[in-house]
Amino acid sequence: MRTPLSVVIGAGGTGGHIYPGLALAEALRRADPDAVVSFIGTERGLETTLIPAAGYRLHTVDMIPFDPALGAKRFLLPAALLRSGAQARSVLRTQKAQVVVGMGGYPSAPAIVGAKMAGLPSVIHESNAVPGRANQFAARLTEHLTVAFDGSRAHLSGGERALTVGMPIAASLAALDRPALREEARRAFGVPEGARVVLFNGGSLGAARLTAAAVGLAARWRGRDDVHLLIKTGPAALAETRQKLIDAGAGAAGHPYGVDAEAGTAPHPYGAHAGAGPVAQAVPYLDRMDLAYAVADLVVCRAGSATIAELATAGVPAVLVPYPYAPGDHQTHNARVLSDAGAAHLVPDAETTADRLAELIDPLLADPARLAVMGRAADPGNHARAADLLAQTVIRLAGQPTTTREFTS
């Protein structure tokens, strides 16, 4: 009788590490429906809500960030790694884990340390063009390295042995057909007839700089019926943003978009949350990114590696505003993957104002052919297959039979 596959994934902190981990878990379940997949993280990050909501068990350990800004506390890092690694080893034994995967970010490092202590095979996935501190450390503890972008190899310890598998993304995005989903998406978000849509997406928690620029742009464009701004604020900034849109004459407190009263159809959840007006609507989150990318003519967003992979795969033109405090300025390096290809414009955070965006976006919206060229310019790479490719590597390390041909670089 075959032993069920048991995999523990270290992922946490931000959605940029968690969502690829969830995509991998989904791929493992596709390859082996009996697979037991669980996660290791901390109690600080988004993993405490995102992972259980996706139906997976989360084990938490005590760990501190790999952050020089900690000051004297950084000297506690070795002790924290030993303690959290021992906690992770206990989890691995309880789960009867066969393979451990580290998806990057400080919550994943204890999982790799625990695997080393337990004598289990492990593999890390580096999602950014410039690797983070946690994976730079973890790369010294495992022989098995995978990366999302070829350029990461040069910056990763032992990178010459890394496999480029792409960035694991959700199956709904890997198979996204934007034209086929577009009308459903426009109805879901209640987009006015004929309006072009600019999506502002600041990441898991929103981005104050992008939200402020979006509100300023909505005020500048109030009264226009040919453009619609969809602003993802994050839950904390939602009420304030909606009020600012109303005060600017760009939003309304009345009936939300997304309700087809005549047809009597149930509104999409976004409609129930949207503070909508003739120019802009604010939503706290986007749990259907396939709809969000399908409705958008242009996306203004940060440049996390998962976002870059999604934009490239879906073929969505973008204005990228890298987070200026990302370690190693890795978001700027990520952004250049698309901007150098002509698929996006790169705008520094400090220059991201309503005036600057209006100057850039207005000509783009007026030229659909140019937007189409941008959408086709990105190399989609392996991202649509990345979750399955990484899953096959994991299954091979577990000594299980693989369901597809082994991937090699």
TrEMBL record:
Gene3D superfamilies, per database record: Glycogen Phosphorylase B (3.40.50.2000)
InterPro entries in the record: GlcNAc_MurG, Glyco_trans_28_C, GlycoTrans_28_N
Binding residue positions for UDP-N-acetyl-alpha-D-glucosamine: T14, G15, G16, N128, S204, Q331
Keywords: Cell cycle, Cell division, Cell membrane, Cell shape, Cell wall biogenesis/degradation, Glycosyltransferase, Membrane, Peptidoglycan synthesis, Transferase
EC number: 2.4.1.227
Full protein name: UDP-N-acetylglucosamine--N-acetylmuramyl-(pentapeptide) pyrophosphoryl-undecaprenol N-acetylglucosamine transferase
Classification via HAMAP family: MurG
Subcellular location: Cell membrane
Family per similarity comment: Belongs to the glycosyltransferase 28 family. MurG subfamily.
Protein's membrane topology: Peripheral membrane protein
Keyword Glycosyltransferase assigned: yes
Pathway: Cell wall biogenesis; peptidoglycan biosynthesis
Catalytic activity from the UniProt record: di-trans,octa-cis-undecaprenyl diphospho-N-acetyl-alpha-D-muramoyl-L-alanyl-D-glutamyl-meso-2,6-diaminopimeloyl-D-alanyl-D-alanine + UDP-N-acetyl-alpha-D-glucosamine = di-trans,octa-cis-undecaprenyl diphospho-[N-acetyl-alpha-D-glucosaminyl-(1->4)]-N-acetyl-alpha-D-muramoyl-L-alanyl-D-glutamyl-meso-2,6-diaminopimeloyl-D-alanyl-D-alanine + UDP + H(+)
Coiled coil: none
Pfam families assigned to the protein according to its UniProt record, in alphabetical order: Glyco_tran_28_C (PF04101), Glyco_transf_28 (PF03033)
